[in-house]
Amino acid sequence: MNNIVDKPEIRNYADYKVEAGEDIRAFKLDNHVGEIVELSGDLVIADDVDPIVAGTYLVPTNQEDDANDEQMLWKSVYDASDYAIYLEVLEVTNFGLFTIDNNGKGYECKIKANNIVY
Predict the structure, then answer these.
(1) Which range of residues forms the domain containing residue 78?
(2) pTM above 0.90, yes or no
(3) What tens digit of pLDDT does each residue of 68-89 get?
(4) What DSSP line would sit under 62-115, residue for residue?
(5) How many domains does the chain contain in total?
């Protein structure tokens, strides 16, 4: 389980742990359908072959389809109809400027949902 690293004394993400009893900073996306969120580029798997642009659909990575080092990230798909919740990129921004990865890219996204019941 990961959390937002909000402790300035932590210099290496690998050293960060959520301690027992500590609050998890997370929320259920299906409670926020229609809202706009910003993602920094280091949270999205992107490459030069299929760049992330407005209209791209982003879905969470998963253990069955993605490598272990790609967990807790977002990836692009051409068709999001098999996913209950997904993000649609509205605009490429510089929101990730403060991160060391992805050249300061960020993404403004809208939370969307399909009517899928599991």
Answers:
(1) 26-113
(2) no
(3) 777 778 999 999 999 999 999 9
(4) -TTTS-GGGTT-EEEES--TT-SEEEEEEEEESGGGGSSSGGG-EEEEEEEE--
(5) 1
